[in-house]
Amino acid sequence: MSLRQRLALTILLVLIFFAASVAVYFWGNTQRSETMTALTRAVATQQQVATFRRDVDRFNTAVVVLATLYNNSQLDQAAQSANKIIEHRDSLDTQMSAFLSSDYHHAAIQPLVEQASALSDNWYAIYLCIQQQRTECGVSIADINRQHRTIEQLADAIEQAASEEAQRRSAEFDRINQLTNQLTVSVFLLTLCVTSLLGFFIIRYTNRSLSTLKLGTERIGEGDLNHRIAVFHDDEIGELATAFNRMADKLASALDTMRASQLEAADANKAKSQFLANMSHELRTPLNTVIGYSEMIEEGLTAEGDININEVTEDIQRIRLAGRHLLALINDILDLSKVEAGKVNLHVETFDVRRLLDELSRTLETIIQTNDNNLELVIDDNVEQWRTDETKLRQILINLLSNAGKFTADGTITLGASVSEDALILTVTDTGIGMTQEQLDKIFDAFVQADSSTTKQFGGTGLGLAISHAFVELLNGTIAVTSEPQQGTSFKVMLPNLN
Fold it and tell me: Is the pTM of this model over 0.85?
C-alpha cells in the first residue's frame, strides 16, 4: 500500500468516525426530544386529570348541597346557589373538550368524558327542577354520587397510567442520555486510538524509509556507487529509492565506461608514442642508408682514379631499396589515414585469382627467402575468376605474407586459395614464432604490435595488419587468425563477389 493510500485511508477512517459521532449526536437528540415530548404530555395529562378531579369534586359537592337545601325546603338559599351550576357545567364542558383533543390517548378517557357529560346533564336537570320549583326532578343524589364515583375511578386509572408513562419516559430519557454519552465517548476514544495507531505506523514507516533513503543517497553521493538502497514497499518512497538505485547503476556504468575510455586513451597514447618511436627508427634507417650511400658515391666520383662501376651500382641499388622501403612506410601511413577519414575508393573489377597469386609469389619470393623460408602455393582447381578490388586484395596479401616472412625463420609459409559457398577463401599460414591469446586480441589495432619486444628484434610500424583488417571490411569480407606460441600463425580471409 502506497503512502498516499495510507494517508487516504487514515483520512477516510477519521471521516467515518466523525460521521458516526454526528449520527450518534443527532440520534440522541431525536430520541431525547421524542421522549421529552411524551414525558411532557404524560405530566400535562396528570395535571389536567388532577384539575378535572378537583373541579368535579367541588362542583359535585355544590350540587349535592344544592339538592339537600332544596329537599329541605330551603328554596331561597337553593335558588341563590342554582345559578352557579351553569358556570360549573361550562367549565366541565371545556375540560372535556380538552380531554378529547389531547395527544394523550387512554382507554378510560372516552368513558370519563361520557360519565362527566352524564353528570353535567344531571346537574342541569337539578338546576331546571329548582328553577321551576318542581318537587320531582327525576335525578337522585344517589345517582349523582354513583356517577361521581365512576368518574373518580376512571380519573384514577388515567392518572395512574399517565404517572407510569411519565416515570417510564423519564427513565427512558435518562437511559438514552446515558447511552448517547457512552456512544459519543466510545466513538471519540475509538477515533483517537485508530488515528493514533495509523499515525504512529505511518510516521514510523516514513521515518524508517526516509532514513534509509537519506543514508543511501549520502553513500551514493560519497562515491559508493555499488551501494543499493533497500526498497521496503512499492510506494512513492520505494519508487524514489528505485530511481536512486537506477541512477547509481547508470552512474556506475558511465564511470566504468569513462574508466575504460581513459584506459583505451592511455593505451592509444602509449601505442602512438611507441609507433612514433618505431616510425622514427624505421624512417631513419632508410634515410641514413640513402644519405650514407649517396655520400659514398659522391666521394667515389670526386676521388682520383678509376671509378668502380660495380660498387657504384651496388650503392645505387641500396639507395633504391631504401627509397622503396621509405615509400612503403609513407604509403602505409597514407592508407591508414584514408581509411580513418573514410576516403578510400574501391575499384571493383573481375580478375584471375590464380594469376594474382602467382605474381605475388614471384614478387615476394626474395623477401620470404631472406630468413631462409620457403613459400608454397596451394590453390584449388575451382579458383578462377573473382570480382572485387584487386589492388586492395593485393595489398592485404602482401602485408600478410610480409609479416609471415618477418616472423618466421627456416620455415614454410603457405598461401592457399579456395572457393566455398560464394566466398573466396585465402589463407596465409606460417611456422613462425606464433602469438598468445593476449597478443591476438590486439594485433588488428593501429600502431600496435603483438609484443613491443618484437619491434626491436624484427622492426616494423604495426600498421600492416590494421590496414589489412580495414581493407577486408571495405570489401565486405572477414579476417580471422589462429595462433599458438612457437607453433606458427594462420590468417584466413573470406571475400564475397562484389557487384
Answer: no
Residues 6+ apart with CB under 8 A from 241: 209, 212, 213, 216, 229, 230, 231
- pLDDT of 113 over the 50 cut: yes
Query: Is residue 109 domain-shared with residue 38, that is, in the same domain?
Result: yes
Confidence of residue 423 (pLDDT cuts 50, 70, 90): very high
Q: Give the pLDDT score at 389.
A: 92
The answer to whether the beta carbons of residues 147 and 116 sit under 8 Å apart is no
Q: Of 279 and 297, which is predicted with more confidence?
A: 297
CA-to-CA distance for 251 and 247, rounded, in angstroms?
Answer: 6
Contacts (Cβ under 8 Å, ≥6 apart) of 148:
56, 57, 60, 119
The mean pLDDT value of the chain amounts to 77
Range of the domain at 480: 346-496
Residue 334 pLDDT exceeds 90: no
- 70 and 47 part of one domain: yes
User: Is residue 325 within 8 Å of 459, Cβ to Cβ?
Assistant: no
Spell out the long-range contacts of 215-223 with Cβ–Cβ below 8 A and sequence spacing 24 or more.
216/241, 216/244, 217/244, 220/244, 220/247, 220/248, 220/251
- Cα–Cα distance for residue pair 124/139, rounded to 1 Å: 10
Q: 408 and 364 in one domain? A: yes
Buried b (16+ CB within 10 A) or exposed e, 48-66: bbeebbeebeebbebbeeb
Band of residue 459 on the pLDDT scale cut at 50, 70, 90: very low
Residue 207 included in any domain? no
Q: Are residues 336 and 353 in the same domain?
A: no
CA distance 191 to 185: 10
